Amino acid sequence: MNNSNPIHRILIVGGGAAGLELATSLGKKLGKPGIAEIVLLDASHTHIWKPLLHEVAAGTLGASEEVEYLAQAHRNYFRFRLGKMQGLNREAKEIYVSPTYNDTGEELIPQRTFSYNTLVMSVGSVSNTFNIDGVDQHCMFIDTITEAFKFQKSLVEAYIKTHAIQKRETDERLSIAIVGAGATGVELSAQLHEVTNMLAIYGLEGTDEVDITIIEAATQLLPALPTRLAIATQQQLTKLGIDLKLGRRVVKVTDKSVETHDGEIIRADLKVWAAGIKAPDWFQNLDDLEVNRINQLVVSQTLQTNDENIFAMGDCAACPWPGHTENVPPRAQAAHQQASTLYKTLVNRQYNKPAVDYIYQDYGSLVSLGKYSTVGNLMGNLMGTVSIGGFIARIVYLSLYKMHQVALHGYFKTTMLTLSNLFRRSIYSRIKLH
Question: Which domain covers residue 217, as residue numbers?
């Protein structure tokens, strides 16, 4: 890319929920008529809505839900580029993209420089390990599609190994430890419990004999939910046989165990870290863009950084929440709202109109325990805060994903995709077995 092209170039780094929705809407509005060039950069070939990654990791959600970036770009008049950003030159209005390698280490795409007129940072978040000994070496993460599929493969291999050992009549049981009792950890634990039962049905006897443990430093799980709903979720997990270690701070992780601050050593064959988030560490060296203590880019109410040509949204942005001491929480609904607001701002910029302020609308929180339960609270101006559960909560939870699909594909294609997946589930295995 070069700056000789007079057309305004909007470069979006990160194709998560917010980034892909923004690229799609801007492509149709500005890219199609040639008003601006929209470019999306991401290190992956495909997109999956991040709140579903725990289902990918458990094997209950397959590749049918993936969105191919190149195909989405072609249909919606923006350009997709594969790569990972590694640096920024604000004066030259350029970003630096690291080389891309294949699985064998061969360089496919060399290091590149992309120019921009407007830059949008939307790279999401990664797990915060808090520099605890052994986490990086021995824990698995599910922050990306690649990591989720890697965990799923390890999970199936562990199940098969356990099945073979059970056949040899030993007492060895598969043990899984999840560190962190937020939405990701809780939802993953329920999905893993469901998978163990499915595998037993498919003939892997003994795989239902699995120890699943959640370890959480706080004394209550699900801090985003009211205490009453958190307790209800805790009771449901206990009923499923999931061991809850609350009020236990992890101090060390080894190849076969997790050690807590009170000296307890919890045996674990598979260890998943879901105990906090931060923006990537390389955000600390983005040409003096202001960041907070967890590397998030500090933005104003208009989602602008301390550079008027650079915006940030989603989990990587520290956005003020008027009337609250904390920033806007890192939730899918916030990312969706920010993409909608930034779309208006970036369209306005083409016509020298002012930016639009982003005001977070909290519609509540929902947590799905797979087929077992869904709990949460809905918030609104007319009804205040209402606690919901069961079938109604499940429908509301699924509707959040459908809203994301509608933003990407429109109502008709989303309906067709939903029907297609219903038929697929009646034919194919309910879990990924390889």
Answer: 135-273
